[in-house]
Amino acid sequence: MKVIDYKFYVNGQWKESQSGQMIEIQSPYLYEMIGRVQAMEKEEVDEAISLAREVQVEWANTSLQERAKYLYRWADELVNMQNEIAPIIMKEVGKSLKDARNEVVRTADFIRYTVEEALHMHGENMKGDSFPGGSKSKIAMIERVPLGVVLAISPFNYPVNLAAAKLAPALIAGNAVIFKPATQGSISGIKMIEAFHKAEFPKGLVSLITGRGSVIGDYLVEHKGIDMISFTGGTNTGEHLAKKAAMIPMVLELGGKDPGIVREDADLVEAAKQIISGAFSYSGQRCTAIKRVLVHEHIGDKLVGILKEEIERLAVGSPEKGNTVVPLIDNQSADFVQGLIEDAIEKGSKVVTGNKRDRNLIYPTLLDHVTEDMSVAWEEPFGPVLPVIRVSSDEEAINIANKSEYGLQASVFTKDINKAFMISNKMETGSVQINGRTERGPDHFPFIGVKGSGMGVQGIRKSIESMTREKVTVLNLSL
Smaller CB count within 10 Å for the chain: N or C? Predict the structure, then answer.
């Protein structure tokens, strides 16, 4: 395979770094280098941010309808390039071609919906005399204005969709963007920006930055030219960024340890179907994957039996063949997952199926009789391993679920809607799915992480709001 050297994107131009250094990108399943990206220097970051600050003022003064036209063109270009972008996503992050193509099309849908949402967001007026002692002559006009320059840091697992989920709301709201993709995923991000470039946005409005975290990572976050940070990634990194960012507004989408609570009255076949889909799609490399099952002990054997049959039907292997369980993003990730499995076995867990490894491909693994002293009960694996913890009551399930440092989502499987809401009300998570798998979408729903799972709210309208602030103009009338 020919190795391509990719350039970074600043001021509407593709450039090579003056550092002369490159970062190699390895395919997680081809086991070879598929490209190299620029290792930028701090001075080049300075240039990108300076240009962004200049052009942002004019962009903010551009009418909403005019901004919308640019974003619509971007969405159209993404659809036009789907057959070019999807194979890159597959090779770079190991996602099946079908899923990669769906990600590109979903991203175009996201951009279009973001435009429509912004077009239907309106300010409000308040009358002074609605407060005791207030004057009827005062009228407050409240509108939302952009924050300035947004630093968007995206993850590897949805390198186009979760990048655009930051860029589109920022842009339609009148911000400029400094886009820093995950290193593994940066080529996909570059292809997305190629579509952006074809839409002929103003130069300097968006810059794509690639480089070593040790050189430009903290420098970007602490830069005085950055007005807001939107980050998706690991909890440890998110906590580090939050400390470095100080007073800068942030939205953090971090890790999860989403439980699937299965009550005694649940439809076990349907619950198993949702759990398998939630736990093993894209090898569980999703923050919203179901990462542990808390099942009532009276039905534990039956549920485990159904899960075993379904797991053993999963297609395993190369993403080029459309498999569900594919090699993990790198060997380090596979080592971590394998370590969790081995720790559980040593402490008495039973391997129902799986526990097989080929390089960084971990076969889907089901662990039964997992207890609270095992790391897999608490650690986020980001891989295809599903621990089953047996409980004696709803209260025990809720207690174990809430002990987690994470609080992204949870699923509750039951035929009793009253019990479902009772459990939901007690869950310390941003969202609770009733009789469905944990998942991010639809993209216009609020997406919330609490505790170690993040801060702030995403979801199209909420993302626009997070990248703007309210501004009040008070009209004093002569009555």
Answer: C
